[in-house]
Design goal:
The protein is α/β, with parallel strands linked by helices. It is about 25% helix and about 25% strand. Helix 1 packs parallel to helix 2 (about 90-100). The termini are far apart.
Length: about 300
């Protein structure tokens, strides 16, 4: 056995459903409701993080926009008030937990950069509680009426960073990003050993891809992937069922630990980082790639 890192993923159902019709609510009432929604999810994740710590987890990732429901099934400006800065209250709170448990934590939240500029982001906090940096989701979908993300998020502008952490070299690729192999390759070229993909995806849309694309990225790039999906049906929207099934797969594309399709769960796996070297020596994809022939990939379409 080589260098073993115990990884953890948290999949969780939303706690408090938002009011469907806000037309008769005052701004004060809307802000109060948003605060209750966020606090309920934060409290749930604090407890589940404690559970992960008891299981010996060294690097932990939450689901996409983990502080509330996946609100992109509607157009409603109330959710702009759900965003917060990085660093900010939520990141700072979980940074304290990271330090307490000597655990690297990936914290996906709705980020406000300046007024009117919002990102779907993930903060990466090291095991000493230090904020190492942020990944901002690069590929933003608009699939009416279920995934109206362009209404809420600006495309990321920080590239594909890889963070040197106490648990290894960590990359982040958020939800819809996973449909694009290009960024997954860049993360590998930047040295990623573990890539986390926090997601929110429903059974009728993407389940047939869930165990296909990400193991393929793991194989093509020779790294581990932690894929996280939320669970349950979120009111008041009719988006379908979030099917959980969060998992870790290894650099050979083998799923080594997986959660259930329903129910809150901490998914844990031992990740042998030495397997990365073994796989990459057997399959020399980085040696044999031909970037000088790939120019068409970056040409603008008409």
């Amino acid at each position: 056995m080589g260098k073993i890192v115990k990884g953890g993923l948290i999949q969780a159902a939303n706690v408090i459903p938002p009011t469907a019709d806000t037309s008769k609510m005052s701004r004060e009432d809307i802000l109060a409701e948003l605060s209750k929604i966020k606090e309920a999810m934060i409290e749930k994740h604090v407890k589940m993080t404690e559970e992960a710590a008891e299981k010996g987890v060294q690097v932990l990732c939450y689901q996409e926009i983990f502080t509330g429901p996946y609100f992109c099934g509607e157009h409603n400006m109330r959710w702009y008030d759900f965003a917060e800065p990085i660093p900010g209250p939520t990141v700072n709170r979980f940074a304290e937990l990271a330090k307490k448990h000597s655990m690297v934590i990936i914290i996906p939240i709705y980020e406000i950069a300046i007024e009117g500029v919002y990102y779907n982001s993930a903060a990466v906090v090291d095991a000493d509680g230090k904020l190492l940096g942020v990944y901002r989701k690069n590929h933003i979908p608009y699939v009416w009426p279920l995934f109206c993300e362009k209404y809420y998020f600006k495309p990321g502008n920080l590239g594909y960073p890889v963070f040197e952490t106490a648990a290894g070299k960590i990359g982040v690729y958020i939800c819809y990003d996973r449909h694009f192999p290009d960024g997954a390759r860049v993360l590998g070229l930047h040295g990623a050993e573990i890539v986390f993909n926090p997601s929110a995806t429903t059974a009728g849309v993407s389940k047939y891809l869930w165990e296909l694309e990400q193991p393929a990225h793991a194989v093509a790039n020779g790294y581990f992937i932690g894929a996280i999906n939320r669970v349950g049906t979120e009111e008041p929207w009719n988006m379908g069922r979030f099917y959980g099934s969060s998992y870790f797969c290894d650099p050979r594309g083998k799923i080594i630990s997986q959660g259930s399709e329903e129910g809150d769960e901490v998914v844990v796996a031992d990740l042998d980082l030495d397997l990365i070297r073994e796989v990459r020596q057997a399959w020399q994809f980085y040696r044999d790639r031909r970037p000088e022939t790939y120019g068409d990939l970056v040409k603008q379409l008409p």
